[in-house]
Each structure stands twice: as structure tokens, then as C-alpha cells.
Please model this.
Amino acid sequence: MMRFTSELCRLQHQAGRHFVLEQPQSSRAWNVESVIEMTSRKSVWKTTFHQCMNGLEARDKLGSAPAYKPTSVLTNHIALPEVLHTKCAGGHRHVQLVGKQACSRAAVYPPGLCAAMVKGVQVIQKKRDEYKTALEKASE
Model:
């Protein structure tokens, strides 16, 4: 599956389109040869962030609290590594993601992570609009 996924990323990159490959930092996917090869391509970045800093929460016997979940992203979208890099400084307790139910719930992106990704996309859109405007002015 990861070879297929990395091939789709390669095709997107080759065609000048963006891709995002996200997996937990500890995933064996990061050791697949085709994924490793993608990380060495020009204009492809890998970044790691902690989802507790983006609002991921879970419950344990003490109640609801942030869930650490270190996550890595491989992308050719230059703004995403800028917004997906926040690491936990340890100023709060973490709930362990144990069991199928907890892990399944943690597979859903928390609102803070969605907002960060949207912010990254908006940065790229703004840069493209500025570039287009500059080209139009230059051709006048």
C-alpha cells in the first residue's frame, strides 16, 4: 500500500501538483524504500509535529486530556512544513492512545490540525495570486 501511495505522490510531484503523505512518526511506512526515496527529492520536505499541540484529545480514567501522537508529514507543499512543526514542550499531561477505539478516534484530524493545514494552503494561494498579478503587470 505504501509503495502505491508513494507512487501517487511521485506522480503528483512530477506533474507539478501538491501531495501530502501523513503517518504516525513511529509508522513502518517511513522505512519503505519508495517513501525514503521520496524524502530525498528536490522540493520535498518531511516535518514532524505533536498532535497534542493541534488539539488532539483522548480520554482515560482521569478524564479528557491532550494525546501526544507524534506525526510526520511528507509534502511538496512548501507552506505545510511551516505550519506543521509544533512540538510539545511538556506543559500538560498526556493521555495514552491505547486500544482500537482510542486509536480510531485519534485517526480523525482535530480542528487545530485542520486549521493549520488550511492556513498552509492559504499561504500558497496568496503567493500564487501575487505571482500572477506580478506577471500580468510585467506583460503590460
Residues 111-138 form the longest helix (28 residues). The beta strands are 20-24, 45-50, 57-60, 63-66, 70-75. The first strand starts at residue 20 and ends at 24.
